[in-house]
Amino acid sequence: xxxxxxxxxxxxxxxxxxxxxNCSYKTSINNLQWYRQNSGRGLVHLILIRSNEREKHSGRxxxxxxxxKKSSSLLITASRAADTASYFCATGRGRGGTASKxxxxxxxxxxxxx
Amino acid sequence: DTAVSQTPKYLVTQMGxxxxxxxxxxxxxxxxYWYKQDSKKFLKIMFSYNNKELIINETVPNxxxxxxxxxxxxxxxxxxxxxxxxxxxxxxxxxxxxGSYEQYFGPGxxxxxx
Lengths: 114, 114
Prior knowledge:
heterodimer, A: mainly beta, six-stranded mixed beta sheet, globular, B: 0% helix, 55% strand
């Protein structure tokens, strides 16, 4: 079954606002990653958080991980029109699994309007 | 310089034909992947090679055969194409040996089977 479920499926905000996307997963993980995909393009890696980490920052991005709830969130602060894209979470397996074998979520489509 | 490149970008072909998609990475990575993204944007891993050795082989029809002539190349050959093979195929790479699980994606190949 699919590992990652993302919420919401679509999000529309105005420039300058913050955007929060959530990801839930089902099995143990080694790491959780977030990727961005612009329309018609490949995926771009944004940030990786390991299973023993709780929070990570990168520029305007903030990722949290709660392994007890098997969930993660991605916060984009002060959003810009250029942030318009689909965002995917992906999990690498833990406990004997292959950490590099990523299982992707369903994605959140973010629309940032001027 | 492009890190992960794929050719062709677009491929339109008829049912029953055989086609190949090529992928090259110039990042010096040791692991390469093929993913399939369907019309609902769901991304699923198909194959993974580490140092030219197959390490992940998901439930993919035998009509799909990956070939890795060297660490920098991973090609995908598809026999007897079917309508359901229509999708966007992404190649990716990572440097697993150093425990770095971030994946770098190519721009994708949009395959349309008519």
